[in-house]
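User: structure tokens for this one?
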Amino acid sequence: MERRTRRAFIRAGLIASASGFAGATLLRGATEKETEEEEEVSPAEDLMREHGVLKRVLLIYGEATRRIEANADLPPDTVADSAKIIRNFIEDYHEKLEENFLFPRFRKAGKLVDLVDVLFEQHQAGRRVTNQTLQLATPQALKNPDDRKKLADALRQFIRMYSPHEAREDTVLFPEFRKIVSGHEYDSLGEDFEKKEHELFGEEGFEGMVDKVAGIERKLGIYDLAQFTPKLNR
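Assistant:
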């Protein structure tokens, strides 16, 4: 009788342990799945993160303009490298996604067509300004007062256009995009965007571009975020 009771007790303990292990395994699997799902980036969020790279380059352009106007030292590679990021990551990748995947769908749906037309026109204008920036961001050009002025003008034009450009996309275009495509299509586009990003820029992708921008910011002494905090008199 005691043996049967002991065996029943042991069997019950083993069943409970197995159940606990299985439950923990299922919980861990669910947690890992949730983590993977959390790491997925929607098309709109992907584009907005890339706008973050653009905004940081605009900050670099602003600092370069300030130095030109103050006749201060400006390492030409900081502007040239920033313009290359604009050309490769923003114009040839980010804007192409918008032009190939977003703009046609808005035109087909008859939504925000006027806005899309202006955004597309500004993309073309931005590429012309980037061409000029790349031509003038050289040691030789920066020694010439006329070329320095032309470079400052080009940087100012770029900043003036793209600050409202990206703001309008973030607050109007991207939120509306979710409404004109199905959930399945929206998710598929997110996967397509990520695949294209890694195809063009390797596994680092977006994170690699952020590191490049940070390196330029450090070189210009504008990486420390605290320096932009206003010092108000109390």
